[in-house]
């Protein structure tokens, strides 16, 4: 096992641990994610069919409608929200959603989390200090 | 981000959970966008109202926030809802949708929001003064507030506008800062723009040409409220413009003796450009709905329609729908304009519009409108083709 530590900016406080789900593409929670099941439903998304529930969801940034913030809240209430979110550079839709849903959010890491983390890695997110600890799965 | 002692206390929860949540939202957004501090606001205009838009997710959040004891600190109004809050049956809205929509309005009311649902808050008393900071959401209202009124607002989401209303503050960034309000591209208009439809079409073209930069528009452009709100809505739709300047017309262009662009980039709009844009936005053929009121009609626009419809009759196979705010509706009803339009077979709806109401199940095939914004959206929202044409011609199409 190999552990790497990425340092960045904590936007929403809280700590969480989970399996990484890494999306190379931006995500619009409105439209891309089913609010009831937490499954990515966008037809052209590389993670189509994957569940974000309980995962540490890593993607470049949010996109699309501001209704996405409400969807993040809904996911939390239905128990299908990600445990934490890590962005390259976050934006207001994801930030507002994470605050209301109380999901730790970190961005601006010293290395791109899209490249440094692989789906399936175990990841610990510290939203207080902006630290992402990655425990690599066996190669 | 710098916070005052008082703001720190609110953030730590000393003044209750609701205010704490509002501050958490504003601080997170401020951090994300590298704002230096918060700034007090004079008013809010809150999006995320239509049940069609925010669904159960939004309803739940608003109910929870209201139950936490959230109360707005500044004058706050709402974006259009998914239906006329009283005459929804006449729009073909289902009972279940109506119940959920009314619950959303009730949640806002509990928080002290003035539940006028309109994209034209500046026509009904939510009209900020020059230079004042506000937190508005609706894209056309944001463009109008920044450009025509010279108020200062970013384009807020429903949640950030509500948080700003509850805290009475917003992060100081973007269009709140004078340095981000200067024009960067000059648009010379070579056509005479003398009607609402033309102003709307020009707004759409300018939005596309500006590629996200603040434009300075020069030309002969109709400066009535009706033309300027149409221009604002279209420019925000095609190019996401939150601020534009029109020489000799808009607030900051009038205030400063000389307004110039910081960059040398210049573009032109001529007859051909306008024609091509109209071609792209507009279909041809007989319509089964005429929809006027995107953005919501002023009293003068309703009067114009009443005059044209007086003593005449809308075709049986065509709907004639006018959209406005409840306040303007009341005035139009008082003056007898509503009666004239409805005797002719039209309906004047309040609180909603053709873009946010769930009209996709009505089987409408083609819609005539004088709004480039509506023409842009109805193919996806109603699933109908749009015919973009002058107001008078819209009316003629309904009469057959």
Short description:
By secondary structure, chain A is an alpha/beta fold. Chain A has helices at residues 29-32, 68-77, 92-101, 113-116, and strands spanning 3-7, 9-12, 15-22, 56-59, 84-87, 105-107, 122-126, 131-135.
**How would you spell out the order of helices and strands of chain B?**
HHEEHEHEEHHEEHEHEHEHEHEHHEEHEH
Regarding quaternary structure, what we see is heterodimer
What separation lies between the terminal Cα atoms of chain B?
61 Å
Largest sheet of chain A at a glance? Answer: 8 strands, mixed
Mean pLDDT of chain A: 94
Low-confidence stretches of chain B: none
Q: Mind telling me the C-alpha Rg of chain A? A: 13 Å
Helical content of chain A stands at 10-25%
The number of helical elements of chain B comes to: 15
Mean pLDDT of chain B: 96
Helix- and strand-based class of chain A? Answer: alpha/beta
Q: What is the strand tally of chain A?
A: 8
CATH topology of chain A: Glucose Oxidase, domain 1
Largest interface: A-B, 24 and 23 residues
- Could you tell me how far the N terminus lies from the C terminus of chain A, measured between alpha carbons in angstroms? 9 Å
Indicate the percent of residues in helices of chain B.
40-55%
The CATH C-level name of the largest domain in chain B is Alpha Beta
List keywords for this structure.
heterodimer; A: 139 residues; alpha/beta; Glucose Oxidase, domain 1; eight-stranded mixed beta sheet; B: 400 residues; Aconitase, domain 3; five-stranded parallel beta sheet; four-stranded parallel beta sheet; 15 strands; 42% helix; globular
């Amino acid at each position: 096992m190999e552990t790497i530590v990425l340092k960045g900016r904590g936007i929403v406080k809280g700590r969480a641990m989970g399996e990484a789900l890494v999306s190379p593409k931006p995500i619009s929670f409105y439209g891309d994610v089913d609010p009831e099941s937490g499954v990515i439903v966008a037809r052209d998304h590389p993670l189509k069919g994957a569940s974000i529930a309980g995962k540490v969801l890593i993607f470049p940034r949010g996109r699309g409608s501001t209704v996405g913030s409400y969807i993040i809240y809904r996911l939390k209430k239905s128990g299908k929200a990600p445990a934490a979110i890590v962005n390259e550079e976050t934006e207001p839709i994801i930030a507002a959603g994470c605050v209301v849903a109380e999901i730790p959010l970190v961005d601006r890491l010293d290395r791109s989390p899209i490249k440094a983390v692989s789906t399936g890695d175990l990841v610990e997110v510290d939203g207080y200090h902006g630290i992402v600890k990655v425990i690599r799965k066996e190669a | 981000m710098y916070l005052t002692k008082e703001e720190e206390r609110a953030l730590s929860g000393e003044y209750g959970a609701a205010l704490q949540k509002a501050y958490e939202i504003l601080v997170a957004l401020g951090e994300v966008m590298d704002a230096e501090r918060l700034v007090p606001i004079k008013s809010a205009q809150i999006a995320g109202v239509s049940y069609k838009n925010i669904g159960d997710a939004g309803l739940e959040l608003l109910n929870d926030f209201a139950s936490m004891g959230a109360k707005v600190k500044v004058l706050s109004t709402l974006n259009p809802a998914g239906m006329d809050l009283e005459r929804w049956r006449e729009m073909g809205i289902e009972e279940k949708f109506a119940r959920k929509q009314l619950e959303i309005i009730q949640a806002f009311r509990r928080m002290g929001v003035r539940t006028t649902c309109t994209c034209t808050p500046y026509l009904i008393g939510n009209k900020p003064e020059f230079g004042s900071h506000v937190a508005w959401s609706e894209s056309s209202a944001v463009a109008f507030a920044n450009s025509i009124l010279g108020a200062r607002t970013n384009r807020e989401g429903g949640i950030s506008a509500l948080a700003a209303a509850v805290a009475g503050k917003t992060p100081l960034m973007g269009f709140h800062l004078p340095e981000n309000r200067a024009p960067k591209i000059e648009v010379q208009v070579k056509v005479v723009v003398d009607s609402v439809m033309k102003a709307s079409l020009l707004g759409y073209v300018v939005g596309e040409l500006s590629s996200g930069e603040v434009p300075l528009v020069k030309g002969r452009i109709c400066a009535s409220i009706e033309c300027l709100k149409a221009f604002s809505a279209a420019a925000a739709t095609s190019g996401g413009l939150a601020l534009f300047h029109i020489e000799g017309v808009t607030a900051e262009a009038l205030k400063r003796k000389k307004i110039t662009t910081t960059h040398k980039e210049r573009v032109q709009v001529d007859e051909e450009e306008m024609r091509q844009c109209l071609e792209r936005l507009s279909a041809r053929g007989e319509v089964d709905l005429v929809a006027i009121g995107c953005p919501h009609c002023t009293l003068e626009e309703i009067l114009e329609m009443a005059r044209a419809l007086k003593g005449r009759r809308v075709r049986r196979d065509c709907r004639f729908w006018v959209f406005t705010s409840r306040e303007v509706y009341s005035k139009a009803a008082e003056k007898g304009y509503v009666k004239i339009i409805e005797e002719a077979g039209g309906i004047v709806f309040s609180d909603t519009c053709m873009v946010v109401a769930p009209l996709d199940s009505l089987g409408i095939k083609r819609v005539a409108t004088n709004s480039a914004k509506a023409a842009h959206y109805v193919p996806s929202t109603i699933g109908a083709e749009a015919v973009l044409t002058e107001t008078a011609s819209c009316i003629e199409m309904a009469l057959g």
